Amino acid sequence: MNIYREIYYWIYFNTKKNKSQHKTAETACLLFGIFQMLNIITLLVLMRHYLILSIEVNSIYGGIILAIIVYIVNKKFLYSKHNEIEKIYSALTIQEQRKGKLTCCLYLIFSAVLFYYCGVNLN
Fold it and tell me: What H or E segment, with its residue span, contains residue 95?
């Protein structure tokens, strides 16, 4: 769960820079949740394609249930502890901060690219 906390922190850190945002912790939680849902959907598409399973990925009800589950988990484990997470990760050394920022960027980019690739080529 530490990698999720670190990615959440860096999303939170970047949303905090935006002065027009009032609820930065909640915004970061929702943005991170969107990428988590993209990853879950990507896994379902990959499983359906390579394991030849009959998983219905286009279900609107499944998407709503998935969004609610991801939101509840993120709210409990990330949003409710955002002060604690901020205290831990703001005290990192410069080297650890670079590693965390790189991890966050790679996670977000890789998630988006893989989702796009699977959506275009495997669906």
Answer: helix 94-121
Closest-CA residue to 42 (of 111, 117, 115, 109) = 115
Convert the pLDDT of each residue in 37-91 to its tens digit.
999 888 888 887 888 777 665 677 878 888 899 999 999 999 999 999 999 999 9
- C-alpha 5/C-alpha 32 separation (Å) is 10
Tokens of 64: 């709503």
Asked if 81 and 11 touch (Cβ cutoff 8 Å), the reply is no
Q: Which residue has the tokens 């589950």?
A: 69
Instruction: Return all residues near 47 (Cβ < 8 A) that are at least 6 apart.
Output: 53, 55
Q: Between vectors from CA 12 to CA 99 and to CA 6, what angle results, nearest 5°?
A: 35
Buried b (16+ CB within 10 A) or exposed e, 66-96: beeebbeebeeebbeebeebbeebeeeeeee
